[in-house]
Specification:
Layout: E1 15-20, E2 22-27, H1 29-42, H2 47-51, E3 56-60, E4 66-70, H3 80-86, H4 90-105, H5 111-115, H6 119-132, H7 137-161, H8 168-183, H9 197-207, H10 213-221, H11 225-238
Antiparallel strand pairs: 1-2, 3-4
Bound molecules: glutathione.
Residues 11-14, 28-30 line the site of glutathione (GSH).
C-alpha cells in the first residue's frame, strides 16, 4: 500500500531493502535482479558498490512527465573470468539481455489489458488482490469494487498507449508463443539446463496472472505450458528461481 512505501521517494514496487552494513535501498525489479546476481557470482564488491553501477537517470517525457530509468539494468558487473563462467559465449549474454528487455518493454504491458479486460475479469483480479493484501473489511470491499472499475477503464487507456489489438488475448498469445519459439526445442530453458535471467523475467510476468481467466486461456491457446511447468519444477526443487 502507498502508506507502506512512504519512506521512499521512489514510488513504485518492488523495492528491496538490504541490510548491507548500512541500510541500502534498491529500486526497479531488473536492477534488483542484476545487482543480486552480480553479487552472488562475484562477491568481490559490496552490494553498495554494485548498486552504484546502476545509477538512476531522470528524463522528461514529451508530456512533461518526469521518469526515472536505471542505466545498465540488464548488465551484470562481472570480470572476465566470471563472465566466462556465466556466459560461455557472447551470444548467450546478448540473448539474455534482449529478452529481459522484451519482458519489461512489451510482455509486462499485456498484463493489465488482459486481466482487467471485462468488468467480470477486473472484479476477479481485484478479489485476488484484496484477498492477498492487507485490507480491512470495509476498505477491502471498497478497494475491490472501486479498484476494479477504475482499472477496467485504465486498462483501456493502456491498451491504446501500447497499441494492442482489439482482442488483447491475441497479443498475449502471440508474445508468449514468440518466447517459446525463442527458447526453441533443443533446450529446456533459454539458459540451457537451468533458467537464466530472461527465463526469470518472463516467468515473473506470467506468474502474476495465475488463477485468472487470462492465465487459463493462455495455457490452453499457446505452447507455453511445458516451459512454464519446468520453471515451476526448478523453483520447487531449489526454493528459488536462480
Ligand atoms: N520498471 C519497474 C516498474 C515498477 C512498477 O511500475 N510497479 C507498479 C506496480 S506493479 C507500481 O508500483 N506502480 C505505481 C506507480 O507507478 O505509481 C520495475 O520493473 O520494477
Amino acid at each position: 500500500m502507498r502508506k507502506e512505501i512512504k519512506f521512499s521517494s521512489y514510488r513504485k514496487v518492488p523495492i528491496l531493502l538490504a541490510n548491507a552494513g548500512s541500510p541500502l535501498q534498491l529500486n526497479d525489479s531488473s536492477v534488483i535482479i542484476s545487482a543480486i546476481k552480480t553479487y552472488l557470482v562475484s562477491r568481490r564488491n559490496s552490494l553498495e558498490e554494485i548498486v552504484s553501477f546502476y545509477p538512476p537517470v531522470k528524463t522528461v517525457t514529451e508530456q512533461g512527465k518526469e521518469v526515472v530509468e536505471y542505466e545498465n539494468k540488464y548488465w551484470l558487473m562481472l570480470d572476465e573470468k566470471e563472465t566466462k563462467k556465466v556466459y560461455p559465449v557472447k551470444e548467450v549474454r546478448v540473448e539474455e539481455m534482449k529478452w529481459r528487455k522484451w519482458a519489461d518493454d512489451w510482455l509486462v504491458h499485456l498484463i493489465s489489458p488482459n486481466v482487467y479486460r471485462t468488468p467480470k475479469e477486473a472484479l476477479a483480479s481485484f478479489d485476488y488482490i484484496v484477498r492477498e493484501g492487507k485490507f480491512g473489511t470495509l476498505e477491502g470491499l471498497f478497494a475491490k469494487y472501486v479498484g476494479a472499475l477504475a482499472m477496467f477503464f485504465v486498462s483501456k487507456r493502456l491498451k491504446k498507449r501500447h497499441q494492442l489489438r482489439d482482442d488483447v488475448r491475441e497479443d498475449l498469445y502471440e508474445a508468449v508463443n514468440e518466447w517459446v519459439k525463442a527458447v526453441g526445442k533443443n533446450r529446456l530453458f533459454m539458459g540451457g539446463n537451468q533458467p537464466n535471467l530472461a527465463d526469470l523475467a518472463v516467468y515473473g510476468v506470467l506468474r502474476v496472472m495465475e488463477g485468472l481467466e487470462a492465465f487459463d486461456d493462455m495455457m490452453v491457446h499457446t505452447k507455453i505450458q511445458p516451459w512454464y511447468q519446468r520453471m515451476e519444477e526448478v523453483i520447487e526443487k531449489t526454493g528459488v528461481a536462480i
